[in-house]
Amino acid sequence: MIALRVLVFSLGVVIALWTVLSAIRTTVLPRSAQVSITRWVFQSIRRVFELAISHTDDFAKRDRVMALFGPISLVALPLVWLLLIGFAYTLMFWAIDTSSYAQAMALSGSSLTTLGFVSKETAGERLLAFTEAGWGLILVALMITFLPSIYSVFSRREAQVAMLEVRAGDPPSAVEMLQRHHRIGWLEDMDDTWLDWERWFAELEESHTTFPILVFFRSPQPQRSWVTASGTVLDTASLYISCLDVERVGPAGVCLRSGFLALRNLADFFGIDFDPDPAPDDPISISRSEFDSAWDQMEEAGLPLKADRDQAWQDFAGWRVNYDTVLLALAEVAMAPYAPWSSDRSSPSHIQPTVRRFGKRLRNGSGRRRDRIGTDSS
Question: Label partner for 154 (CA 20 to 30 A): which of 71, 110, 218, 352?
């Protein structure tokens, strides 16, 4: 019997330490980390939400339901931590010779909530009660500081996404973005735009791998999404470099590289398979006819196009191949709203029934980190 109590006490200690470490890695650790408890909570709640929307193909209804996924997951997470701490200390209270499991559970609940409605008879019980109450307060404090950080990053992300509607239309389109800049005389003066989005992509990578729940936080307006905004800016930069006869393409290239590296790191965190070093002539989801249609629209709008359309197509495909797979996969993961050249060709279940599916890209289990993220293929 003594051996059993020692084993149970040790198990309680392990569960408590595991829970506290998970909370610290989730809320304080300033780098991406696969946290098993956090992942299990988010995945479990995600399955419930997916079941709730499985009966409808109406994107508006699905969006309204999925908008609650992130907030509910964040509220559920500290509750799970507290339940695990309570369970761990219940085991420890029982192991130090509490008469019954029910009494041990009452002692643990009394200590965790700091209500003190159950008296502690021994020094061991008092010591456990003090430590449990301390861990409970620490977990609550961590969550109180965690939530403002989440919403601060979310607000900065969405401000840039909202501004894109002015420049790229609704839904955002790369061709529309170039045409609007041409109409107002900003086509050759887009350096600040590219540099702003370079910084946005850098923050996106850092924040959305450190706080992965942000990936599932939906925009205040249903037609907007950080995924489709990313795709629009990257496609705009790709068309700008490959198709337009302009002098300065350096800032656009820097923005493009910053963007596809950010999306690759996000995809890597979520365990999405992609080729880290694709060839320039690897297939992409954009067809030559779609590119030709975009070219014709730009030509009709009077944009300064290069002379060789075939070479422009090869250059565009060489840039797009760097982010094509990860963009479409992330659009599926985030259930992004419709936008051309991104979510319109991801999952058929949340956009439109006729959209072609490119295959399941999410692996079961935790993601992995690569030592090398490939270079551009253009």
Answer: 352
Cα separation, 90 vs 78, in Å, equals 18
Q: What CA–CA distances, in Å, run from 46 to 207, 229, 257, 328?
A: 21, 23, 31, 19
Spatial contact of 233 and 255, defined as CB atoms under 8 Å apart: yes
Please name the helix (run of DSSP H) or strand (run of DSSP E) that holds residue 266, with its range, or none.
helix 250-269
* CA nearest neighbour of 213 among 361, 69, 83: 69
From the centroid of its chain, how far is CA 7? 39
- Domain boundary residue among 143, 158, 177? 143
Tokens found for residue 12: 């309680």
What is the DSSP annotation of 61-85? HHHHHHTTHHHHHHHHHHHHHHHHH
pTM (2 d.p.): 0.84
**Domain limits at 199?**
169-345
Residue 122: what pLDDT? 79
- Nearest C-alpha neighbor of 129 from the set 147, 149, 151, 104: 104
Residues in the chain with pLDDT < 70?
A: 98-99, 116-117, 119-121, 347-378
In a domain, 151, yes or no: no
Question: For the chain, first and last CA: distance in Å?
Answer: 69
How far apart CA 234 and CA 218 sit, in angstroms, is 20
Q: What is the pLDDT of residues 228-280, one digit of tens each?
A: 999 999 999 999 999 999 988 899 999 999 999 999 999 998 889 999 999 99
- Please check whether residues 206 and 128 belong to one and the same domain: no
CA distance 205 to 166: 24
Whole-number Å distance between alpha carbons of 321 and 248: 22
Instruction: Go through 304-320 and write b for each residue having 16 or more CB atoms within 10 A of its CB, e for each that does not.
Output: eeeeeeeebbebbbbbb
**To which H or E segment does residue 312 belong?**
helix 309-320
The domain tally of the chain equals: 2
Task: Verify that 276 and 325 share a domain, yes or no.
Answer: yes
